[in-house]
Specification:
With 399 residues, this protein is of the alpha/beta class. It is 41% helix and 13% strand. It has two domains: 145 residues, Aspartate Aminotransferase, domain 1; 222 residues, Type I PLP-dependent aspartate aminotransferase-like (Major domain) (Aspartate Aminotransferase, domain 2, 3-Layer(aba) Sandwich), CATH 3.40.640. The chain has a seven-stranded mixed β-sheet with strand order 2-8-7-6-5-3-4, sandwiched between helices.
């Protein structure tokens, strides 16, 4: 057996998560004693609110949570998701049209797996979260990138989407607020994109996991609230990770047409079965517990966002659109490429990120992880002091 065919072609073609790789490298360097500051990880730095932790502790004591439960999720959690959807998105769903997944990533993959076949195309606005193209490719479908740069505030237009549409187009991935850019589509833009998809019979897979992290008066627009007629060809992805600082608890969900949810549930029943029951009980507490602590976290993120954008704009060669959602800044760094930095001349954002890590001991994620080179993602989900110190090091290096 040759090395070439030891691993299946499908899995051999998968690239590792660039964001997790950067975070892992930063942590390894810190463990080795280097004072690395990491802007790579897309997770809140706050502890999970105590009332959620307390609910999990109590759940762990109950024998009923020590057993298998329905693959689609605890009925109580599916009802809580339906109630939360009505509260936050303004429309009613049947709890039976929800599927609880092991984090948002499983929801992403299962949504694509449920509706795509080899030969299908998925329009993927770029910059995009690094997992989307890998999940699409695993189904045998092809991601078709549509790029919107800093000059468009990273927001694609209907005209761009239409130019990318072919007879093979099956779905559109829509993410607002956006990872990695922090861009937020307006109500009018969201409606226009949804109406375009409806007109052409294109599935919309809408990732709404950053819905509560908004700034400067930006508003979250649920796709199905403005184009309800899409309900039969729309899958909504969400979870508790970002809103409630629960990335490690691994609870996400997908909402969709009954036949899609049934197919994805059948798949999950063989793949992972049910999500850990203690985590599901914690998620119920989170969804039923209000948003007061979420608002406190959002306020801190907003403060850090203001600091980061101001400091990044002080770097000659950086162009920094103002992010109005999530917890990322996504500067264009093209003005720095080709410039000598301590004897090195980066020509790509990947090379620039390597120089910044080596020379300034700061970890950022290069644009190549999310689409074209020439950009970088920096998360401001870290402490104020570390944020100011880390961006300050980049300023000094590139001065």
């Amino acid at each position: 057996m040759t090395a070439k065919n030891r691993i299946s072609a499908r899995l051999g073609a998968i690239a590792p998560s660039a964001t997790l790789a950067v975070d892992a490298k930063a942590k390894a360097l810190k463990a080795a004693g280097r004072p690395v500051i990491g802007f790579g990880a897309g997770e809140p730095d706050f502890p999970t609110p105590q009332f959620i932790v307390d609910a999990a502790i109590e759940a762990a004591k109950e024998p009923r949570n020590h057993r298998y439960t329905p693959a689609a999720g605890l009925p109580e959690l599916r009802q809580a998701i339906a109630d939360k959807t009505l509260r936050d998105s303004g429309y009613e769903i049947d709890p039976a049209t929800t599927l609880v997944t092991n984090g948002g990533k499983q929801a992403v993959f299962q949504a694509f797996a449920a509706v795509l076949d080899p030969g299908d195309e998925v329009i993927l606005p770029a910059p995009y979260w690094t997992t989307y193209p890998e999940a699409i490719s695993l189904t045998g479908a092809t991601p078709v990138e549509v790029f919107a740069g800093a000059d468009q505030d990273y927001l694609v237009t209907v005209e761009q989407l239409e130019a990318a549409r072919t007879d093979a187009t099956k779905a559109l991935l829509f993410c607002s607020p956006s990872n990695p850019t922090g861009a937020v589509y307006s109500r009018e833009q969201t409606a226009a994109i949804g109406e375009w998809a409806l007109e052409h019979g294109i599935w919309v897979i809408t990732d709404e996991i950053y819905e509560h992290l908004l700034y400067d008066g930006a508003e979250f627009t649920p796709m199905l609230s403005v184009v309800p007629d899409l309900a039969d060809t729309c899958i909504v992805l969400n979870g508790v990770a970002k809103t409630y600082a629960m990335t490690g608890w691994r609870v996400g969900w997908m909402i969709g047409p009954a036949d899609v949810i049934k197919a994805a549930t059948n798949f999950q029943s063989h793949l992972t079965s049910n999500v850990a029951n203690v985590s599901q009980r914690a998620a119920i507490a989170a969804l039923q517990g209000g948003l007061d602590e979420v608002e406190q976290m959002r306020t801190a993120f907003d403060r850090r966002r203001t600091t980061m954008v101001r400091m990044l704009r002080e770097i000659d060669g950086f162009e920094v659109p103002t992010p109005t959602g999530a917890f990322y800044a996504y500067p264009s760094v093209e003005g720095v490429l080709g410039r000598e930095i301590r004897g090195k001349v980066p020509t790509t954002s990947a090379e620039l990120a390597a120089i910044i890590l080596e020379e300034a001991e700061v970890a950022i994620v290069p644009g190549e992880a999310f689409g074209p080179s020439g950009y970088a993602r920096l998360s401001y989900a870290l402490g104020d002091d570390d944020l100011a110190e880390g961006v300050g090091r980049i300023q000094s290096l590139l001065a």
